[in-house]
From TrEMBL:
This is PhoU domain-containing protein. Residues 140-231, 250-329 form the PhoU domain. It comes from miscellaneous Crenarchaeota group-15 archaeon DG-45. InterPro entries: PhoU (IPR028366), PhoU-like_sf (IPR038078), PhoU_dom (IPR026022). Pfam families: PhoU (PF01895). GO terms for biological process: intracellular phosphate ion homeostasis; negative regulation of phosphate metabolic process. The lineage of its organism: Archaea, Candidatus Bathyarchaeota, MCG-15.
Amino acid sequence: MEPRKVQKVGYSTLSVSLPMRWAKKRRIQKGDLIFISEESDGALRLTTEPGSSEDSSVYVVDVDLCDNTKVLERVIVGNYVLGRNIIRVESKRRLMREQIESIRWVTQRLLGIGIIEEGDRHLLLQCSIDPKNFPLSTVVRRLYVITSMMFKETLDGLLDGDMELAKDAITREYEADTIYWLLARLLASAQQSRLVSEGIGISDPMDIVQSSLIARFLEMIGDRVHDVASNIIELQGFRKDGDSELIDRLTQMGQITFTMFDKAVKSIFDGNVKIASDAVDLHETIEEEERNLLKKFQGGADLDAVTIVGAIAWDLRIIAEHSSAIAEIAIVNMLKGENEICSAPEGDE
């Protein structure tokens, strides 16, 4: 950090000279325009051109350096998350059919990106997402709604023995992944550009960190719900007329977990510390439900069925842990702003 004295020019104008090394590096000359913007912490930001959230660079992916199609898919997703708009996928030889299909598959899983040009040795992908059209709170809420629907369908499928509901939950995970990667892209872009962060409704840099954690926890909860739904379908083959108590106890554990998840995420939107705290308290209840469930049925039931039930109970416990983490973020987020429960005495600011 370099200190500089403020000079008074004329009757009311205050001026500060620019560091010569910076001016030379930016090739600033007399008469050039400097653009000044104020940061949220009061700091001034100087740039030599108006800020822009558009990245017009072409990023080239060398297919020949990707060991398999999974690596290729992950590289494309990584470029998407980094906010890159034009991605050229190319090879020194003719692209193989499985490589082209892999690229098509991954672009169908990502929002706003598609193939605009295709040749024997290359594909050109373009993303047309304008961050301003995707307010952060709206996208996070959408991810919550999808995950919540998956969870409800899974529990209803368990209670009613309706495997179509469980299959619907599994299918929805693709949509949840799409929204998650969109969130990851928006947050990565917001971290790189103040214009993007303001455009999606972020005024505090700490919100980027918290929103990234919330999005990741929601995505992991969706993955666990997917696993629960898959295991419920597998469990159906072992269900017998006398298994109603097992199903009821498992459903009860699932419903408590859903309540905890629902309270945790709603506390993010409502800023209610009591709801968030109630959600955290349910964690112990779920752990106790898991212990009681496994203890009661571990001895007498079919070994394969017990294994599946144990896997479901474990996934529900992990969902509870992720939900608890979301609730704790909600509490921290609430304490950041003005609130009645915690404040600094007047005059201490």
